[in-house]
C-alpha cells in the first residue's frame, strides 16, 4: 500500500503553495486562497487548507529526500539567498536541515 494523499492546514495557502512549487517542484493543480491541490513527481496529492491558526506538534514536519548532499546544499543556498533563516545543513540521521515554510509548517531537506 502506498501513501498518496496528505492534507496540511496552513495560515497562507498561496504562500505555502508557491514555496512548495518554487523550491521542491510540486505542481499546482488549482485552488484558491482557502484551498489548493499540489502533486509531486510520484503523484502524491498534497492539499493545503486555510486555517486562522496552525498548531502542529513540535516535531511535526514534511520531508524532501534529495539524491545527494550537494542537492541539499543547493536548496539550502537558494532558500538562504531568498531570505529564509535556518541553520545550515548538518550531519544527523542524514545530511539535513529544516526550514519553516510560509503557512506554519516545518520542512526537512535531507540526503
From TrEMBL:
<dbReference type="GO" id="GO:0051213">
    <property type="term" value="F:dioxygenase activity"/>
</dbReference>
<keyword id="KW-0560">Oxidoreductase</keyword>
<keyword id="KW-0223">Dioxygenase</keyword>
<dbReference type="InterPro" id="IPR037523">
    <property type="entry name" value="VOC_core"/>
</dbReference>
<dbReference type="InterPro" id="IPR051332">
    <property type="entry name" value="Fosfomycin_Res_Enzymes"/>
</dbReference>
<protein>
    <submittedName>
        <fullName>Glyoxalase/bleomycin resistance protein/dioxygenase</fullName>
    </submittedName>
</protein>
<dbReference type="Pfam" id="PF00903">
    <property type="entry name" value="Glyoxalase"/>
</dbReference>
<dbReference type="InterPro" id="IPR029068">
    <property type="entry name" value="Glyas_Bleomycin-R_OHBP_Dase"/>
</dbReference>
<dbReference type="InterPro" id="IPR004360">
    <property type="entry name" value="Glyas_Fos-R_dOase_dom"/>
</dbReference>
<feature type="domain" description="VOC">
    <location>
        <begin position="2"/>
        <end position="111"/>
    </location>
</feature>
Amino acid at each position: 500500500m502506498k501513501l498518496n494523499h496528505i492534507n496540511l492546514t496552513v495560515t497562507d495557502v498561496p504562500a505555502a503553495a508557491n514555496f512548495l512549487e518554487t523550491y521542491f517542484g510540486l505542481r499546482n493543480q488549482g485552488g484558491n486562497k482557502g484551498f489548493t491541490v499540489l502533486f509531486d513527481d510520484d503523484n502524491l496529492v498534497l492539499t493545503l487548507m486555510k486555517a486562522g491558526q496552525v498548531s502542529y506538534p513540535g516535531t511535526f514536519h514534511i520531508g524532501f529526500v534529495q539524491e545527494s548532499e550537494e542537492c541539499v546544499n543547493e536548496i539550502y543556498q537558494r532558500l538562504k539567498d531568498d531570505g529564509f533563516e535556518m541553520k545550515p545543513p548538518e550531519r544527523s540521521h542524514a545530511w539535513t536541515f529544516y526550514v519553516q515554510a510560509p503557512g506554519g509548517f516545518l520542512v526537512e531537506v535531507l540526503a
